[in-house]
Amino acid sequence: MSRNSLIYLLLFILLQFLLVEINCEVKFPISQRYFHTTTYIDNKLYILGGRYTSDDTIKTLGREFFYLDFSTGFNTNSLTWNTVNNFVPQHHGAATVVGGAQNDTLFLYGGITNYERMSMVYSFNPKKSWMIPTLEGNDGSEVNRKAFLTGIADNGKMYLWGGTEMITRYYVNDMLILDMIDLTWSTGSLINAPIPRNEYGATLLPNHKIIYMGGSNGQNLGIGLDKVYMYDTINDSWATQVTSGNIPSRRFGFSSNLALDGQRLIIFGGYNVPSKEATYVLDLTNFNWYVPNINGTIPSSRAYHRADVINKYLVVTFGSGYNNSKEDDVLLLDISNNDQYVWTGYYAISDSAPSPIDSKKSRNYKLIGIIGASVVGSMVLIAGTYYLHRWNRNRRTKIAVHPPSGKLDNQTGQKVVLTMVNDNGNNDQQTKQ
């Protein structure tokens, strides 16, 4: 490799380093959205798609792909979003889960788009980027696109029940099953399956059963929660369970998540659900509903949001029904104590939450480091460019003063014109016989 090429390579690597550091750390505005997807992989909560609440038209579908880093503490009113290259067309109402041979790949299915060539399934591995997997089995070409459903992953398979079929726009109650390792389609049993619906709650239980509840089948009030439905992923069978206690109101567009002890189910929000009725718990030992004790500032109820259990928190992201100029886009409910849940604005990876001052200091130190690295890198870049310019100029001068040996002029007797660059940058010419 020549000296010139080596300098260019070093400058290019430095520039790439600076761009990566700046893009990953500097904040940028994120629009409030709903019907997006969230997927948690390697301490990062990836968020994709959705519809913007500011302009409720098909032309405002989200295409951004970004994540929130959960490896360090943060304050929900001062979030740093990190962008990721995206390959998926703009869409909303899709479903995502984590799967693959190493259980480290995001699988996205379905959704509504105004981009007619959007594939049925996409996969994203943080180390390998986006792919469109080739799917086979059970005549996968006839698998219809669905939206407004919840994907559940178990034993390497993605379970896709119900939702709205995009061709007919009908509510459906079929079970599509995608093997995320063999990349094959199959279908589950319809015997004793619940009535068709979308925008329901769904959660995988420790016994490999998926619990489904609520949702919408065209009724404005939604479907009641006096019954829940269990799909056994091992035996491919359905069962119905009657609930009791303080049964929540009918609802759809809510979230449901398993509590840390695996014996409770937490639901939050829903369309037209008052804030005081937003949070309920279902005790899975007796299927009894109750309202949990909650401390902290109660947020507005949200619909069409997403919720994930990360460490000791129920993490609620975006949705509709709240004003993001008054409330944060991300909510944190500390569920570590079943007797007392707490709404908080601080995410901590240890038992003690960081204070606002500590969080601010950490962000300031990080910002100072980024600015310092950028300044030093820019100085090195400028110095390298200047050195390269001088080196090329001196090289041209030497070539002009000492041209290559002239075998041709000795043979032809032609005059050789030597061009010398003087101190003023002008050209002096001498003629040699």
From TrEMBL:
<dbReference type="Pfam" id="PF24681">
    <property type="entry name" value="Kelch_KLHDC2_KLHL20_DRC7"/>
</dbReference>
<keyword id="KW-1133">Transmembrane helix</keyword>
<keyword id="KW-0880">Kelch repeat</keyword>
<keyword id="KW-0812">Transmembrane</keyword>
<keyword id="KW-0732">Signal</keyword>
<feature type="transmembrane region" description="Helical">
    <location>
        <begin position="367"/>
        <end position="388"/>
    </location>
</feature>
<keyword id="KW-0677">Repeat</keyword>
<dbReference type="InterPro" id="IPR015915">
    <property type="entry name" value="Kelch-typ_b-propeller"/>
</dbReference>
<keyword id="KW-0472">Membrane</keyword>
<feature type="signal peptide">
    <location>
        <begin position="1"/>
        <end position="22"/>
    </location>
</feature>
<protein>
    <recommendedName>
        <fullName>Galactose oxidase</fullName>
    </recommendedName>
</protein>
<dbReference type="InterPro" id="IPR011043">
    <property type="entry name" value="Gal_Oxase/kelch_b-propeller"/>
</dbReference>
